[in-house]
């Protein structure tokens, strides 16, 4: 497959508003970036001719440096091709820039973030960037060797984020999963010896705490359906929430991405954003009533049903991601006031629509059918998820003992 290198000006500025110069290495449509260590004003960048403009005081020196760095990468690409090595973009970068076994934790972390960005996995990118930020705050330096990440280091880090940042046990375990991922990569790249692996056995164990999933019951949902003193924003939020619930807790991103063209023969047909599965599901009568409320704003068959993404730049994954994130935050805010007006003390969020469906389904629907409705790839996921809402057997067993 083709590989290439190109000089680019990255789009994320530093605190001074300057943008970093980098070499983008692409192989098989996957890219990674090597920063050259210099930042410039966006006005000093000639994107057409791919060079620093004369308006920059050090333009000649910077252009010479960029040419040299690009030449190094191209020579490496030619060398790997002549040796018939099918190296990935990150392997090319490591061959050029990594100093053997001295690659640091934060260097591999940045490669990981670059990979997520190039694949437009922006939810994961946002979360993992935040987790890495906590590790940097704790270490107070980007100079962190994998050999330093031992059991003592991790225990001190866990105590730090618990006490200093008040992170939940689930968040802490998510950070441990990320550290473990990067440590395994370091082992595979022979950066650190497997014998130093700090996870498993009697060392650091990653165990997520059990969480209580609370959904609404039928009566509570009926109260929400029949509320009449809602603002326009609250009424729209209720429509979105009920639409999600009626499609077995459809994820908010998938709800907002649905278009009129996804509706055919009274069925909703769409591709899930989480795992790219193609879904075809009957449109319940209550969902049809919600759809009818938005038909007056329909501009074309490919128009979005709901308004949140109508003005998004769909060539820009970050813009879509940001608009989805903003919409979800607004919906959750409105759901708090809806719960208050409904006299419901349970916390209601967009994701609670999924829990509510599970709560009402209980054990009345066969697990294989629930798997289809939830759109889970693995039945084990369905069984684990639904176990949170099945209490009848335990309740009956308790009654059989105490009711005498």
Characterize the structure shown.
The protein is built from 15 helices and eight strands. It has helices spanning 59-82, 89-97, 105-118, 122-139, 151-163, 169-188, 218-225, 232-246, 252-257, 285-292, 317-342, 352-361, 367-374, 379-386, 392-402, and strands spanning 3-9, 19-27, 30-40, 45-46, 51-52, 263-264, 267-271, 278-282. Helix 13 (367-374) packs across helix 14 (379-386). The mean pLDDT is 85.
Classified in CATH, the superfamily of the largest domain is: Intergrase catalytic core
Q: Percent of residues in beta strands?
A: 5-15%
Q: Please write the CATH class name of the largest domain.
A: Mainly Alpha
Find the CATH topology of the largest domain: hpI Integrase, Chain A
Summed up, the domain count is 3
Q: SSE string, helix = H, strand = E?
A: EEEEEHHHHHHHHHEEEHHHHHH
Kindly summarize this structure in a few lines.
By secondary structure, this protein is mainly α. The chain has helices at residues 59-82, 89-97, 105-118, 122-139, 151-163, 169-188, 218-225, 232-246, 252-257, 285-292, 317-342, 352-361, 367-374, 379-386, 392-402; strands at residues 3-9, 19-27, 30-40, 45-46, 51-52, 263-264, 267-271, 278-282. It folds into three domains: 1-87, no CATH class; 98-209, DNA polymerase, domain 1, CATH 1.10.150; 218-361, Intergrase catalytic core (hpI Integrase, Chain A), CATH 1.10.443.10.
């Amino acid at each position: 497959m083709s590989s290439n290198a190109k000089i680019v000006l990255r789009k994320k500025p530093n605190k001074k508003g300057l943008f970093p110069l980098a070499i983008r290495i692409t192989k098989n449509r996957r890219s990674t970036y090597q920063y050259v260590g210099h930042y410039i004003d966006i006005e000093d960048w000639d994107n057409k001719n791919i060079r620093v403009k004369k308006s920059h005081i050090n333009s000649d020196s910077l252009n010479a440096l960029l040419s040299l760095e690009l030449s190094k990468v191209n020579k490496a690409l030619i060398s790997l091709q002549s040796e018939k090595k099918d190296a990935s973009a990150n392997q090319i970068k490591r061959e050029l820039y990594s100093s053997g076994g001295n690659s640091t934790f934060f260097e591999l972390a940045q490669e990981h973030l670059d990979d997520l960005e190039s694949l437009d996995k922006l939810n994961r990118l946002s979360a993992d960037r935040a987790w890495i930020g906590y590790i940097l705050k704790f270490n107070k330096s980007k100079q962190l060797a994998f050999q330093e990440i031992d059991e003592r280091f991790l225990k001190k880090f866990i105590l730090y984020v618990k006490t200093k940042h008040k992170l939940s046990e689930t968040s802490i375990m998510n950070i441990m999963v990320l550290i473990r991922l990067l440590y395994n990569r370091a082992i595979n790249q022979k950066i650190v010896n497997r014998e130093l692996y700090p996870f498993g056995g009697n060392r650091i164990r990653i165990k997520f705490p059990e969480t209580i999933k609370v959904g609404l019951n039928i009566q509570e949902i009926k109260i929400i359906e029949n509320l009449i003193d809602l603002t326009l924003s609250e009424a729209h939020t209720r429509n979105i929430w009920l639409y999600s619930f009626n499609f077995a807790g459809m994820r908010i991103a998938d709800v907002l991405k649905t278009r009129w063209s996804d509706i055919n023969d009274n069925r909703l047909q769409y591709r899930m954003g989480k795992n790219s599965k193609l879904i075809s599901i009957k449109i319940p009568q209550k969902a049809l009533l919600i759809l009818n409320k938005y038909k007056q704003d329909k501009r074309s068959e490919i128009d979005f049903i709901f308004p949140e993404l109508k003005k998004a730049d769909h060539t820009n994954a970050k813009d879509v991601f940001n608009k989805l994130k903003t919409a979800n935050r607004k919906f959750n805010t409105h759901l708090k006031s809806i719960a208050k007006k409904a006299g419901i003390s349970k916390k209601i969020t967009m994701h609670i629509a999924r829990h509510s469906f599970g709560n009402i389904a209980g054990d009345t629907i066969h697990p294989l059918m629930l798997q289809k409705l939830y759109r889970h790839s693995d039945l084990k996921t369905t069984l684990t998820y639904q176990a949170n809402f099945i209490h009848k057997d335990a309740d009956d067993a308790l009654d059989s003992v105490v009711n005498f």
